[in-house]
Amino acid sequence: MNQFYQNPITNYFKNNQEFISGLIIGLLVLLMIARQAVGLPLLFVYLVATSGLIKPSKEYLVIAGLLILKIILVSIICKNNLGDMNALNLKEWFRRIVIDLILLIMVFIRLRPDIKKSFYYFCITLFLLDLICNIYNHIHGVSWGGIPLQIRPRDWLGRSGGIFGHPFYSIDISLIALFTALLLRNRYLVPLLLIAVLNLVLAGSQRGILALALVIVLYALFYWRAKTIYIYLVSALIVSAVFLGVADIAVHHPELVAHNERIFRWSYGYEALISNWQQVNNYLRLNSEVFIPQSSSLINSPFYLKTPLFFINAESYYLSEAVNYGLLLSLLSILIFFRVYRINSKCNDPFPKLSTDSKEISASSRQQVGPSPIGIAFLLSFFIFLDSFYGYLMGTTFLTFFYTVVCFADQSALKLQKKG
Fold first, then answer.
1. Which of 146, 160, 281, 315 has the fewest CB atoms within 10 Å, i.e. the most exposed one?
2. How many CA atoms lie within 13 A of 243 on its CB side?
């Protein structure tokens, strides 16, 4: 009789291996957020052990080559600017390359569909916890960690940090939940989208509202199959409108410190690049340099400090990389994210409209609503590419990993993985 007995716990793990694997990946991502130097190697080892390495398409191999070149150059620049590579400087160096390391590693890894789905459910669970924390913060006026809500001048709501104690993390988690809801395409799509929007509002940062507006605009452009030239023109208008809008607010409302500081950092970064355009160091920041601006508005600004350009946050992913590492590294980042978008855009119909003809839709497919997964990858890849001109959403490891899981999905690699 014992030979037919199966331990129910063992049986459960055996029948739900991919679901459990997705949850473990999610937990390792959380560890990576808390301790990058520990979490990233463990995540990489686990991904290789469970999913294995694949041979990506030539397009992704080009991206891998660009990432390797960028990591080498950033490492050289870090060594020259940081000097002695002690423990603190090694930590700073790793922080500088961790985003590119995640991108590089994930070029050679593709999660199986069921593992992906499980990871997406983990993202939704984390989002719900973040939502509960934000609701608690607004009800009690203080976070679960005892941090009071910060209310800036002209804010409608206080800035709530959610589960990680910072609004920008809460924004990333909410955006991931929004894209995850579109990817899962189940009957909970609309409620999940609505509460994702709610959490973006509860975070209290205008950056979240701006990101939401960008997603909606891009969704409309892709859904209605706007011509590529129109998409690029609208994108240029959006980026220009953000810069001009923030500048106008800063001029008319000097009490809004955040907007004035953002304008200072954008202007400082731009002037630093333009003033030294003829110098080699402007293209590769091989040597430490302190820039002294010429504009009286920058020199007399309360935000001005004689800080080496290597440590300047220019309030833009691309601009910060240009200031910290040189224009060449910034152009490499722009090229990498644009190439990922172009790979996803080559699908025959990356953003199909839903058919309304009942004869064309089976009973099972009616339960799934929204665009296809490749359409969401198409949307997410262009969203990240565009947002990085004026924002810094790509600076977090969680969003970076989610981006690679969704957007790094060339079909040739997936076929090779299935055969393996």
1. 146
2. 18
Token look-up 């950092």 returns: 265
pLDDT at residue 294 in the model: 87
Q: Are 343 and 59 in contact (CB under 8 A)?
A: yes
- Spatial separation of the C-alpha atoms in residues 338 and 340, rounded to whole Å: 5
CB-CB contact of 340 with 383 (8 Å): no
Q: For residues 230-261, b (16+ Cβ closer than 10 Å) or e, as one string?
A: ebeebbeebbeebbeebbebbeeeeebebbbb
Q: 10-residue block means of pLDDT along the chain (420 residues)?
A: 56 72 95 92 94 90 97 96 89 95 96 94 96 91 78 75 87 96 88 94 89 95 91 96 92 84 94 89 92 89 91 94 96 96 78 46 44 87 95 86 91 46
Of 63, 385, 333, 248, the residue nearest 323 (C-alpha)? 333
Q: What is d(CA 116, CA 19) in angstroms, rounded to the nearest whole number?
A: 9
CA end-to-end span of the chain, whole Å? 38
- DSSP letter for 326, please: -
* Residues 6 or more apart in contact with residue 36 via CB below 8 angstroms: 94, 95, 98, 397
256, 250 Cβ separation under 8 angstroms: yes
| φ and ψ of 390, to 5 deg | -130, 0
Q: How far is CA 82 from CA 67, 68, 90, 327, in A?
A: 22, 21, 9, 19
196: tokens are 């994702």
Give Cα 371 to chain centroid, integer Å.
Answer: 21
Hunting for tokens 């969401």 — which residue is that?
376
Burial of 357 (0-12, 13-18, 19+ CB in 10 A): exposed
Q: Which residues contact 165 (CB under 8 A, 6 or more apart)?
A: 143, 145, 147
pTM of the model: 0.89
Query: Tokens 């609701």 identify what position?
Result: 135
